[in-house]
Every structure is written in C-alpha cells, then in structure tokens.
Write a structure and sequence with these properties.
20 strands; disordered C terminus; eight-stranded antiparallel beta sheet; Jelly Rolls; seven-stranded antiparallel beta sheet; 46% strand; 1 helix; globular; 272 residues; mainly beta
Amino acid sequence: MLVGWQKPVLGTQLIYGHPLVLGLFRAWLMNENSGKIIHELVDGILPTTWNSTVTWTGRGLTFGALGNLRVEVPNFKVGNAFTVASRIYITDRGANWPAVMGNWTGKDADWFVGWDQGNYSTYLDTAAGNYSIDSTVAVTLNQWIDVAYVFDGRFIRIYEDGIEVVTDDNGAYTTMSDEGTSDIEIGSNSADRTWIGFMAHLYFWKNRALKSAEVMSLHIAPYAMFARSSAARHFDTIAVEAKMFLKNVSLYASLKGDTNGLWRTFKTEYGS
C-alpha cells in the first residue's frame, strides 16, 4: 500500500503558504463519497456531468466500466507549462489513449495525459503542431500508484510513484495552442478513450512544472498542502498559563490553541 493515505475530511482548506500551492489551478480530493458533485479546492464546486458508470469507492471515484466523467471548466487553458498529479488504481487500461485528464474535441487545443495501448503516453496541440509521446513503459495494473505528468515548455517527464520513468524532449513544440472555451474530462479525454479503476485525488498546476523532488514529496505526503481537519487538532479544551516578571510587575497570560493550531492570548492580568 502507498504511504500518505490520511486523506483530509470534506471541507478541508488549502494551506496557501505551502510551497506546492503556488500555481495550483485545480485540486480535487474526491472525498465526498456520495452524490454527483465534486468539490474543487481552489475555486470551489464546479459544474459536473457524470457518466452513469462513475460511482464512489471508499477512497475516491470508481470508473466501473469504459465510461467517463466530464468536469466542465470554461476557459481551461493548460498554460505553456503544467503538472498533472493523481493517485489511481487501474484494473483495465483500455485501448487507445485513455487519460487521467484531458480534452479532445478534434479541433486545435486538444491535449491529454495518460497512456496508449497500456504504455505511458501524452498528446499536446502546440502552436508548432501536434506533439505526442508513445513510450514503451507500461503503466502498472492492479495496485495503487501515484502518477505525475510534467511539461516544462520543452521536456515532458512522466513519473510513477515519484520515480521518473519517461523523459522526452519536444524540441520546437513549446507553446500550447489557445484553447478558448473548452471542457476537461477526468478519467478520459473523450467518451471512447476510457479505463476502468479508481482515482483518489487529482491536482493540476498551471504554468508550473514541478521539480523531481517535489513530485517525490507528493508521493510521500500527497495531502501535506491541506490543513488538518479541526477534529484532529482540538486545542480549544487546552489552556496554559504563562507568567513573566518585568520590573517587579507580574503578567499572567492565559493562552488557548485555536482550530488552526496557533496559540492565542485570550486573557491577561497585571499585578504588582
């Protein structure tokens, strides 16, 4: 089993000072466990259209047949650098170009990150033309894996469990096409390019290519950039008293820990 399964509870917020939050454009924790709404942690709830084969499992979404979940995000521009990171469990890799995330309209601005014929693959529409990777590295079946796809404007790097398994230099294909208004899809890039399995979370960084060390840190602690739930940090029943002496004047300060894990002064008394 992978490390880092302490998924935050529903309603958990991002820690905006965390280094990994810089450039984070979309983040889905997929901890709703029921219904047909996914809470997006950067901008809030986004409209969703569900395929009937998509359900919930204890750790996230279940793609129970070769069907897809479309998450409608208007004006979703991937930027000239990006990172996609997800924790998935694949039982059937599908066939042609199944995707962790992507968009396919048959027009300019199509892109996806996933695999093709069982091997890691990507496809980008760029200003210089279409660019794709068809690697010989097979995506792992029947176990949880962390996958990350990183495009820095020239190189595409694909990681499994924090380890770089594919590197490709795309040369002149450095500027993505302008997508205008388009949708993205989770678990596919179009209705006939799907896979069967589970997804525990999905993160997307726009105009940011994570470094290798950052990808490994996501593998080790995928939820470190989220605040711990208040249930895990109930300091409000704990109080301590501090006493200090300044020129023969004593100061008594009663302190409490708030739900952010910070000590706050709520009562002071002065005396001689």
